[in-house]
Amino acid sequence: xxxxxxxxxxxxxxxxxxxxxxxxxxxxxxxxxxxxxxxxxxxxxxxxxxxxxxxxxxxxxxxxxxxxxxxxxxxxxxxxxxxxxxxxxxxxxxxxxxxxxxxxxxxxxxxxxxxxxxxxxxxxxxxxxxxxxxxxxxxxxxxxxxxxxxxxxxxxxxxxxxxxxxxxxxxxxxxxxxxxxxxxxxxxxxxxxxxxxxxxxxxxxxxxxxxxxxxxxxxxxxxxxxxxxxxxxxxxxxxxxxxxxxxxxxxxxxxxxxxxxxxxxxxxx
Length: 269
Fold this sequence. Notes:
This protein is of the alpha+beta class. Helices cover 25% and strands 23% of the residues.
């Protein structure tokens, strides 16, 4: 019987295929991470098509790569520039500015929701936990990429400490930055991933980039790195992690700020 061999280019081909599947349906209609036309309206038929395409991308990622396949990692020689900032780069929220003025000494990361042991951790406590450093490529839905070295705490360690309840299906990230201001109130950035990606070895809560403390423009004091997904799935200015069984009642009910505005829930690459 002939042996099946995986080509060394498989990882690159899979990445290109999944990126094209994700962006081909929705990315061409949306302006990217930094701006969004609030007047854009997607009809129910087209939205249904996009959601089906999103589900296909999610299933293809799981089928081709499994739960623990790694995103490509690089060497320090591949780092050609500082990590490019995007989206909100200087939160104008009073709570955030007060924390920044005290160098985040009063900041806490809360882990709550469907857990047995809720957590409240200082930045020092996080930095004293086992860490992971990885050099990976950030791919933005706008079309640009940037390689950087990230250091942080594996999210799986916090989930193990908190003891996730069996009914939990998603991890929801709550952020300090206001992404949208309107007459009905300010909207804070938020996002979700499933527990497969949450427990992935490359999913970390990053407090450092390129050997230095995480700067404000890149999400200080803490941002999420989900290396197998696009940049909008990696929230910055994190202050709370919530374990949930669904997100239909949060925001627009689609699992994240940009998702509520038409992006795919699963931004796999």
